[in-house]
Amino acid sequence: MAIEFRCRQCSRLLRTPDDSVGKPAQCPECGGLTTVPRTSEVGFGGGRPALGDFDQPHDPYGLTGDPYKPAGYRHPEIDPAAGEARRADSAADPHHRPRSDNPYEAPSLAPEYYPPDAARAAQRASAPALALIIVASIDLGLSVLGGLLMVVLMAAPGIQANDVFGMGWNAGGAVVSVAINILIIIGMINMRRLNNYGLAMTAAILSLLPCFHCCVFKLPFAIWAIVVLNEVRPSFRS
Fold it and tell me: Residues 6 or more apart from 237 whose CB is under 8 A from it?
């Protein structure tokens, strides 16, 4: 049997099990605390209300009276009304935990109703991002050394025109490689910090290009980074 009474602050109709007499109860509407009385206080004469009190869509205070139902999780596929209630409550509860008809039942802490938090997502994104940062840094150093070597050889005496053209082409490729590796490093730093999803994904895709030094070592880490980015995308700040 349930005890029915009204919130002292917002007059909302509240229902609790009869074993909660004398315990504090929090109103889900206004958050006010009310001590559960020994008997029901609905209506003007005290005691439990007549069945006719619930026949009307609204009571004298303008509040809707719903028949008491036992606490428990209603699956939306079994009870369509539960699905509508769950969608209405999703804005108030971002964790999408199962709701009960009893407002005083302790909320479920089942982990499957919690989205991955930012700390766990950052931990998952850290490994592939760090691996690509290391490989891209090595590639960057090799590209800088290769470009400088080409410039020095072009300035050496006795170099023919055909050789100069080939060295210039290699130097230009080294400059492009330096720019791409810098972009990869910046994108992976943003991936570790869960910032700028677009830049992080662009950097991971550029790591797939088989055109520069260490491309063989970048390939598996780039695929890993793309998979992880798709999984932790909701945790990115932008």
Answer: 194, 195
Taking the model in full, what pTM does it have? 0.49
Q: Where are the alpha helices (DSSP H) in the chain?
A: 80-89, 118-155, 161-192, 197-206, 215-231
Q: DSSP state, 66?
A: -
The type of residue at 201 is M
Closest-CA residue to 143 (of 215, 225, 199, 220): 215
Tell me how many degrees the CA angle 205-231-188 measures, rounded to the nearest 5: 40
Phi/psi for 5 (5° steps) reads: -155, 175
Per-residue model confidence as pLDDT tens digits over 32-80: 787 877 776 554 444 444 444 444 444 444 444 455 444 444 444 444 4
* Rounded Cα–Cα distance for residues 193 and 63 (Å): 48
